[in-house]
Write a structure and sequence with these properties.
Blueprint (H helix, E strand, L loop, with lengths): L13 H8 L2 H43 L6 H5 L7 H19 L2 E3 L2 E3 L2 H23 L2 H33 L4 H58 L5 H17 L14
Amino acid sequence: MTELPFTPMLASGALQFAFEKSTLEGKLTIGALLILSLFSWTIILTKFRQLYIARKWAKRFFAAYTATRDPLDIKRKGEDFEGAPAYQLYIRGADELEYHLKNNPKAVNGQHRISTAAFDAVKVTLEEAAAAEAMALEKGMIVLSTAVAGGPFIGLLGTVWGVMETFAGIAKANSASLTAMAPGVAGALIATVIGLLVAIPAMFGYNFMVTTIRGITQELDGFASRYATQIDHVYVENRNLEEKITDAFSRFEQGRSTVPAGADLATTEAP
C-alpha cells in the first residue's frame, strides 16, 4: 500500500521520540509553553468573538444614529445596541446630558438647554467612556504579546539547556558517537519547535486584532467628536456676546428698580 505524501507529522513519531528523550528541564519548559499556548488560544478565540460582535453591532448603531436628528432619540426610543462600543459611549453621554437638562436647565425660547460648563462635563464623560471602551477592547492582549515575544525564547532556553545536558553526558561517558548525541539533541530541539508553534498563531492573531482594535478606537474618537458637536448644536445655550450683554444689563436694571428711592444717596458728614 502506497503511503500518502501528506502523512501527518506525528505519524513518524519524531515528536514523540524527541519528547521521550528530552530532559526533565526540557519537559518542564514544554509544559510551561503548553500552558502559555492554552491562555493564548483562549484570548484569540474570545477576542475574535468580541471584535466580531463589536463590528456587527457598531454598523447597526451607526446606521440608526445617522437616521436621527436629535442626539437623544435612540435613548428615548429605548433602542438597544449592547454589543457596540460606540453605543456604550452614547449612553454615558446621554445620561450625563439628561442629568444636566433635568437639574441645571437653561431656558432659551421656552426650551431647556444646558450651560457651556455643563457641556464641558458632558465632553469629559464622553472622553472617559471612549477610554474605557478602548481599554476593554485591549484587555488580554498582553497575553498574546507575551506569547509572541516570549514563546521562542522559552523554547530556546529549553533547547540550550537540553544541548548542554547532552554534551555534559557525552563528556562523562567519553563517547562522542552520533548514536549517543542524536537522542539528546532531538530531545533538546523539541522545546524550540513547541515555542515556535506557540508564538506563530499568537503573532498572526495579535497583528490582526491590534489592527481591528485600532480601527474601532478611531471610530470611537470620531463618534465622540461628532456626538459632542450635535449636542452643542441642539442642547447647549449658545448666545452671542451681544445677547449676553443685553441680558446682563437688563438684569442689572431690574435689580436697581427694586432698590428703595434714596438708598443710594447716602451722605457722609466731614469731621
